[in-house]
Structures are given as C-alpha cells and as structure tokens.
Amino acid sequence: MPAKKSKKGPTKGSGGKGRRSLEGKKGTLPAEQRHWYDGKQRSKAIRRAKEVEASGAAPRPARSGEPERRRVDSDLLVGRNPVLEALRAGMPASRLFLSNSLDSDDRVNEAARLAGEQGVEVLEVTRAELDRRCDSNGQPGAVHQGMALQARPYRYLVPEDLLERALGADGPPLIVALDGVTDPHNLGAIARSAAAFGADGLLIPERRSAGVTTTVWKTSAGTLARLPIAQATNLTRALEAFKKAGLFVVGLDADGDAAIPGLDLATGPLVVVVGSEGKGLSRLVRESCDVIASIPIRNAESLNASVAAGVSLYEVARLRAEQRDS
Q1: What is the DSSP string of 47-102?
Q2: Per residue in 245-256, pLDDT tens?
C-alpha cells in the first residue's frame, strides 16, 4: 500500500515547532561596541568623499556661527620656508607644529617668534606625529622638514557684504568675479593683481571653483590678509544684483565686441569677470554681462586667466588715474 502523501499548503498554527527560530539571537553587541565599527565608518566616509570627488561636485562649505560669512576646512602648510613666508604674510593660523628633534636655525626661531606674536599656538610633537598629520591632510610623504602650520578656515563674505564694502569705499567700486577658475595658483595670482590695482574684492562661485587654500595664500603673497573674497551660491544672480546696484559688468573674452584699452566703462562702478581656464565664460554669465571685452594680442591664441585679469585691471587703474588727473 503506497505511503500517504502529506497535504500541501500551510499548516494551521506552529504548534511550538518554530518557537526557537522566532527568538532573537543572544549576545549581539550594539554597533558602537563592535571592534570593527569605527573602521567600517571611516571606510564609508572615505568612499563617500571619493564619490564626491569623482563626480566633480565640490562639497558645500560649512557655515560659521556668524550668518554673514561662510568657512571651509582648514589646511596644513608644511616646510620651513613656506611656513615662515606664511607667518610673515600674516596668514590666519591656529597652530605651529615643531618636531622635538628639530635642528634649530634662523627660520625656526623666526617662525616661533612670529607665531607667538600673532597668537598662534606652538606645539612640540614627534616627527612621527607630523608624518601622521600630513597623511591625514592628504599630503602623504610630504617633506615637512620638522615644521607645519595649521591654517585657520578661511571666512568668506556673502556677495551682499562685498557689494556694501565696495559701495562704501573711496572711488568707484571695482570687483573681480571669477567664473569657474579652478586652479588655486590662478586664484592667488588674480588676488594679487586685484589688490595691486585697487579692487575692492573678489567674487567666486561656491561650487566648481578654486577656494582659498594655503596654495592660494602663498601665490597671493599675503594679499588675502586685506582683500576680501565672497562666495556666491549662484554667480549669475549675484551679478544681476550688482547690476541693479549700479555696477556695470564686463566679461573678458578673446572674441569680445569691445577692447580693454580705452574701455569707456572702466572709470565707472565696475565688475570685471574672468572666465575659466579652459572654457572661458559660461553662457549664463556671458548673457549677464553688459559688455564682452577682449585684450589685443599677437602670436598667441589666448592669455592665461590670471594674466588676462592682471592686464585688464592695470588698464582699468590707468584709465581711472587719467580721469582723476584731468
């Protein structure tokens, strides 16, 4: 007689047979008590940072306690000469790290003295600790020569504050706007030219643009100590607001309709817009400009962004001086 087949389908009730499988596992530690938890969280953070970097989107700067300013993460400057030059230029810094096995020389002594005069904390650490700080700051294997300077987070103005400063300064306002300049050396060089030729400040986009780092401080030769920089969440809207306040916007481009030499708008309230290194002015920014101006050149297709800014700002300063003297 064949065996009776069991009936298919669910049975009524568990009858206690599945009680053990319904019970929770014993001895499961909370996540923060597991020895691998911290490392796993760090790995996630590193992976997220790499994904942001690969996407080309710059992280939004954290806001400070003051509503009118924004700040970005601090930076570490290494090497005896760079650190000393930064302290001489008055770069805002929080800590000066000196190796406890450091051979003293005039640069070390002067750096320690300047740090003390500027209220910068001086800390003596091991060379291994300096190596670790360089690694965590994205500078593995950096030749720190036993000295490193922790820069303070740069505090940006908002465009409205920069405009207010420019309108309150002596003479017609002059603001330099950068449309996607991503090279920190160019940003530093433009800042140096802007300070030299009497600009009231710089305006940069919050995203896809170089921000103020130790590289920018070094390239600007310390001019950022007296030249403010504002960040705009939307550069086009900021330019439109400046135009409503009475400023003319002049964009620099090789195919401009006007020429920088003898530019009529130079003696009035002005915004000079410098395009990115590769693409120049973006479409929306170009449409916001009152005039597109070019620099006459020969034997070259174009000029570097910082060179173009320097030449244009020199001409603006020259034309303004001529008007004052006439």
Answers
A1: HHHHHHHHHTPPPPPPB-SSTTEEE----EEESHHHHHHHHHHT--EEEEEEETTP
A2: 999 999 999 888
